[in-house]
Design brief:
Helices cover 56% and strands 14% of the residues. By secondary structure, the protein is an alpha+beta fold. It has 2 domains: 91 residues; 181 residues. Strands 1, 2, 3, 4, 5 and 6 form a 6-stranded antiparallel beta sheet that branches. The radius of gyration is 43 Å and the shape is elongated.
Amino acid sequence: MPYHEDVPTPASALSPARPAPQGGSRSLLARLLTVTVLPVLLLGLFVAAVLGAERMSALRAVDDSLAATVARILGTTLDVSDLTQVAAQLQAAVTADNVEFVDVRPTGDTLRFFRSKTPDTDWALRRAYDAAQTTDPASHRFVFHDTRLALYRDAAARVTDPAVRDRLNRVADTLSGGDRAYQVVRARVYEDRSGQRALQLPGDPAPGGTPLFELGVGVSNTGIETLLLRQQWLVVIACTLAALLAAALAWRATRRVVTPIVHLTRTADRLSLGDLQDPVTLDAPTRTITELHDLALAIERLRTSLALAMTRLRPAPPPSSTRSREP
């Protein structure tokens, strides 16, 4: 039989072409990160949304209760015919925490009373409050677009009298610009023939008697709102940190699985190209993963079988003919 020398086969002919990944395929690391981090983030957003809704509901309930309490106290004790008493009572009311302004509108030709925490700028707040009540009289929320600070600073810059300028600057120091939201409760006060007063809050039926005046109390729980908002942000930050920690742990755990899989894939490619010399091994930490250890053993058995088969199929070298020469 004639001897034929083995011709090396190109690697492209030995290695079958890998199928192109289907659309939407992702790596194992990306999938594990998604299923680990996404639920934590969604939970954080859900909790933050629930806390935000509860915060607004709780603030409205507290504001309504506080405003109704102030209205009841003023409704039972206020005498609109005594200007000195009215001024003192309104001043005492607005000095209480969270009570921002009180509006008293007596029936008939009696003057209207309006007092806020910043009496020097009552004109601006009263004008905005009247406009809001005219636009939506049934609303219990009033947003004041406070431009008083800018107006006072501009006026102080224009005047030439030092005394007037100092007064304007002192008033401006007590103000803060921006939008401020108030919860407003409006109530009507009635008096019967025996002198007993009754308060009609929104939604209550009108009591009998003569209407005396109408009250409007505006409150703002800025401190409580800031505290609740801070707690809400703490929940969001905690969930974000938990998501980052989960992502780090998932990445670490995934790397322990992905790295040996990549190693075994390259080993299988090498075996398919005929490189059967090096045994298939895994490092000690990876061998603790049962599935990967079994896969490595299966590939090693395949390598051993291929090596034995290649040894049997390899043609033997032709025998060398030696001629013995006789002397």
